[in-house]
Write a structure and sequence with these properties.
The chain is mainly alpha-helical. The protein contains 26 helices and no strands.
Length: about 550
Amino acid sequence: MLLTIGSFFFFTALVALITWLITRNDDHDSSQGYFLAGRSLTFPLIAGSLLLTNLSAEQMVGLNGAAFDDGLCVMVWEVVCVIALVFMAWFFLPRFLKSGVATVPQYLEIRFDHQTQVITNLIFLIAYVGILLPIILYTGATGMVGMLNITELLGTLPETLGMKPDILALWIIVWMVGIIGSIYALFGGLRTVAVSDTLNGVGLLVGGFLITGFALSQIGGSEGMLAGAEELYKDQQARFNSVGSEETSVPFGTIFSGIFLLNLFYWTTNQQIIQRTFGASSLAEGQKGVLLTGALKLLGPLYLVIPGMIAYNIFAGDNIRSDDAYGLLVREVLPQPLTGFFAAAMIGAILSSFNSALNSSCTLFSLGFYKNVLRPKASEEEVVRSGKIFGWIVAVIAMSIAPLLASTTSIFGYLQKMNGMYFIPIFAVVLVGMLTRRVAPIAAKSALLMGFIMIAVGYFVPPFDLVVASLHEFHFLGIVFAWLVIFMLVMGELYPRETEFIQEDVKAVDMTPWRFARLAGWGLIILVILIYAIFADFGVLDPTGSS
């Protein structure tokens, strides 16, 4: 146990030291340097930061937990997102970079008006503070408690404090990660986040593949990893199906409605994710970074889905919660020194998503509210300082909420459900804004508010929640999205802008596209279709049960 803890602290400190050495002379005082890394990010840093910001504990713990329950079909979250990344490189990124914006709400202010920007800022901030940040901390802490066996290290302390050991361990890890992540995000800025993301990404990818390799070797016994893979497929052949039945969390039909829309928003419009693409040194570098991320995501099922299925082989009869499966698997199959290394990589992944979301929250507040609404004449130093103060307030709130999520049955399912409340209306407004020239601000503002309210009512207010449950929530999100788009287009015909919107190039970066962007994008789309087709068995869709 001491070896595990020691190696954990060693690798964590090593990443922090290297990050500090690389970024210590960066511009952390101006808003351009702090929030956009001085528009200096090249494609390896963009890809590394994009990958690890996404590849956090809610993915490692949550998606493997979903695979523990449903099998291979949950790989849809990894595979379909590649198509969304292609659309980001081809369509969305050029328009964002051409406008020279630092946030998505800033783009909506250019396309529509100031009030649209304020409403979008508010929705993002509520979602990040109340949903995203607490979930990142909770899932990270859950994985760490299982991996490092924190409850055993606490000894009799929980009894002394009158708390359950797992709850006390959860509080300790949440606050430790939250404080460290806040220091990264609030003192370093976006480039510090991007560099630490890339360094941790190497460790996490290596560790993720090691988990799969060691776990398969354990199943295969003396015959090794390949025998373990054959045994896993033999034992769970029916669960090795990319097509989800109605009994799973991702029925096949939902791929073409809510799941695809959630992926599109996440990879093209979600401030937490795409902020590092706004810091690209050129359009070509941004496109290469986004498409490289897509290529790397194709490997995602090997460490985000297969370990959950292996855990099903090992722990299926032990009556464990699905969200606990991954942490228990890591402790079961990895040698102690490597457990410490992987725990450090997991902490890096948690920190990555937490400090990225926190940095984005600060950006939204400082540039969206403080500079635009509260103090338009504020200096650069005051704008950056306001973001740091706001960030500490947000971090404390998130750290206080996170342990309260312990009663949730499936954290990954809960995350996707809650994300829909703000993903869908914002994505609908951004898409219509980019595709049309005459839709007026009143249509965008109405759609933002109505979409948010409609989805919240559909989720939480009887009897509407029963109707949504009968449809499946992802189909419901698709219906709301279609309705919002149609509503805005009709409003654009009835109450159009007086003049057509024309997007201007503010010359923030070189807008020459990467010459292989189209070819690489089509290659990725073809690979997605092939991977999905190879593992598809549509027999599960037959209600009679015959294939």
